[in-house]
Amino acid sequence: MKRILLLLLLCVSPMFAREMGEFVKDIQFKPLEFEVPSITSMTNASGVEIFSLKNAEFPIVYADILIYHGKKNLGKRPTEIGRLLEDSWELSGSTSYPKEKFLETLEFYGASFSVSVDYEKTVFTIAYLKKTESVVLPIIQSFFEAPNLDEGLISITRGKLAEEINRRSDNVTSLAKRKIKEAMFQGTIAGTSMKKSNLDVIQKEDLLRFQKEILSASKRRLLITGDFDLKAWETFFPTLTKNESFEAEIITPSLLSANVSKENKWIRLVTKDVTQSYISLSGVLPEHNHPDFYAIQVLNYIIGGGGFNSYYMREIRNNRGLAYTAGSFTEFQETYGTVQFYAMTKTESAKEVLDLMKELIQPKLINSLTEEELVRAKTAIINTFVFQFEDDKRTLASEVRRRDHKMPEGYLQNFRREIEKVTLADLQRVGKLYFQSDKMITTIVGPKSLESFWKGSVKLLQPED
Known about the structure:
Elements: H1 2-16, H2 22-26, E1 40-43, E2 49-54, E3 60-67, H3 80-92, H4 100-108, E4 112-117, E5 122-129, H5 133-145, H6 151-167, H7 172-184, H8 196-201, H9 204-216, E6 220-226, H10 253-263, E7 267-271, E8 276-285, H11 293-305, H12 311-319, E9 323-332, E10 337-346, H13 350-359, H14 363-366, H15 371-384, H16 392-404, H17 411-420, H18 424-434, E11 441-446, E12 458-461
Parallel strand pairs: 2-6, 7-11, 7-12
Antiparallel strand pairs: 1-2, 3-5, 3-6, 4-5, 8-10, 8-11, 9-10
Keywords: Signal
GO molecular function, one term: metal ion binding
Signal peptide: 1-17
């Protein structure tokens, strides 16, 4: 697999190191043939689902413990609890190995450990040398059986997060993405940004309660690769009784569409004194397990997701020199999806770029796409699909994501076949459904002077509104 990837990179990298020219269009790539690695899955005596992929090339074990309780389970509690717990917990260690002793001991044995409280679940990432397994696993086990949460570290983490909030608007792209998410996901935990005032009211008891919820959640998975021995993990997990379901937020396309309808009456201008403005069109897509998924992926590649092969880069950047970068990307989750078209441009070019961005997703262009463009896009997507399996950890993560999103059995194996089935008629159909600028939120980060380009159609926002 690694040799295939190396050859592919050596062949493709020079092409993308320079701007697209007519010669690139004439290069023909055949679809890459490869086998999806075979993953072993089972459920152990403690009710933990185990996904494994053996690779004894190096005497190292990599493991991810997934506990399905995350920020979406916070309910009406401050969303800042997730980040505050994440950093404080990792640094606090266990009662047997408190504070820095926990991570320092693991580092002494060549092991690493981290905690991430994500939206859907909490992830514990572990790596250790096989020869130290009998010593390292009990240390890590103490983190779950007798967790510590140090008041001093909570205070330090609170200060670090407050400073992060102070500096989060420094980067134009990060600011734009935050304001887009706040608009698209307004009224949800996912769309709520951290506030310093909320950090101040969170008490240690709030963190302990959420920590306890995480550790008592019965849905758990272990993803393990490398030179592992599953027998060493037989007594690691406690047997948990199925607990009552905790309140969980559910985001749907209809909820997001309602938010778009509230915000797409204006151009949302987030005022920031910069010379390069960020422009975005953000829309709603269906859930991952939807029949239109494959056609959307192909159309997105052609319009903006294909780098120098896309219309956005070719027409906005290369042919007209209007943007430093331009493109698009999709994100699919279990219950919804989103698409974002973007460009970074000189402030004086903002109006021209936005007009062109809208023009390039209109039915007129989508209906004019050719069979040659379709074939080229499908081949490129099929060839890049191999990177889903560039390492064993990512292979396991792809399979777990398939199950989390309720994708059909054999999704990974059949992905290339489903992409091949996409037709020009499919592109025209999904284009009309999902790629219409009047069904999107327009967000610009730039100076207040941009308001003059769209008099009467601009909603002014401050970065911290």
